Amino acid sequence: MLKTILKTILKTMLKPMLKPMPWLGGMLLISAMSVSMASGAMAHDVQTDTLRIAHPFAMPTPPGATNGAAYVDISAFSAPVTLVGARSPASADVELHDMQMDGDMMQMRHVEAIRVEAGETYTMRPGGGYHLMLIGLTEPLKEGEQFPLTLTFAEQGDVDIEVWVQGAQEGSEAADGHHH
Ligand SMILES: [Cu+2]
């Protein structure tokens, strides 16, 4: 039953997001320009004594979509950190999700926690693995907008971040740029 529901969510929401957009070719130059800027003034990392969150972003949602997904890179410093929850005014709920291939079908499942070992970085990206599922969006996510999101860690409580709404390629490349 749960599997069926997730499959349906995936079909209705993620499939259009994963489709390459026809205008992507034309956007490559602009995308590259944004990346070089992101390393400077446009960076929006959040750092605490124990961890660093690099370039949180979410993909724009198609009209009528009720769910969205956000991606963050979590670096743990000298001790492991465990993400146990998230919330945002952008949606009714935020769940920690994992997305994996099951045969030729992408499957999403809810996870209780995402643990990052000391000295390691977990990199969330569109297309697979962990992500933050925004369930019941208050309004569609539009490219260029930002929204606040609060991450709850077992070891240290809440960390407030600002999520940028960007295309998958632009957001991923900007986030990669934070590690150089
Ligand atoms: Cu999900």
Fold and architecture overview:
The protein contains 3 helices and 11 strands, in the order ααβββββββββββα. With 180 residues, the protein is α+β, with helices and mostly antiparallel strands. The chain has one domain (2-177): PCu(A)C copper chaperone (Immunoglobulin-like). Strands 1, 2, 3, 4, 5, 6, 7, 8, 9, 10 and 11 form an 11-stranded mixed sheet that branches. Residues 14-41 have low confidence and may be disordered. Copper (II) ion is lined by residues 69, 97, 99, 108, 131, 133.
Under CATH at level 1, the class stands as Mainly Beta
Please state the CA-atom Rg, rounded to the nearest Å: 16 Å
Oligomer: single chain
User: What profile does the largest beta sheet have?
Assistant: 11 strands, mixed
- Measured distance between first and last alpha carbons: 44 Å
Q: Spans with pLDDT under 50 lasting ≥5 residues?
A: 14-41
Number of strands: 11
Q: Percentage of helical residues?
A: 10-25%
Mean pLDDT, to the nearest integer, reads 82
The CATH topology, please?
Answer: Immunoglobulin-like
Order of helices and strands: HHEEEEEEEEEEEH
Count helical runs.
3
Shape descriptor: globular
What count of domains describes the coordinates? 1
Structural class: alpha+beta
